[in-house]
Amino acid sequence: MKWMKLKIDQLVHAEYNPRKDLKAGDPEFEKIRNSVLEFGYCEPIICNSDYTIVGGHQRAKVLKALGYDEVDCVLVDVNKSKEKALNI
Q1: Percent of the chain beyond pLDDT 90?
Q2: pLDDT tens for residues 5-49?
Q3: 32 in Cβ contact with 40 (< 8 Å)
Q4: DSSP letters along 22-47, please?
């Protein structure tokens, strides 16, 4: 596990992500957006070594919408079956 700053466009959204695909105007999107605006970006995105997002899909979408170019990430190196388990 290591910390890295990655370009937000490098991140790969996992197809198996069980969460709803949020869009601006959705109540949950707006809650995350308002939290980032009030408190800043406090929680890193968790990614596998191939930059697949394991945790933080919604944060990544909100941060991109807010104009973030780079985000802090925690990089893990797990196989795809463990990645999916970690996501859930």
Answers
A1: 73
A2: 999 999 998 888 766 778 899 999 999 999 999 999 899 999 999
A3: no
A4: --TTSHHHHHHHHHHHHH---SPEEE
Which residue pairs from 75-81 have beta carbons closer than 8 angstroms and sit at least 24 positions apart in sequence? 75/1, 75/2, 75/3, 75/4, 75/47, 75/48, 75/49, 76/1, 76/46, 76/47, 76/48, 76/49, 77/1, 77/48, 77/49, 78/48
Q: Which residues contact 48 (CB under 8 A, 6 or more apart)?
A: 54, 75, 76, 77, 78, 83
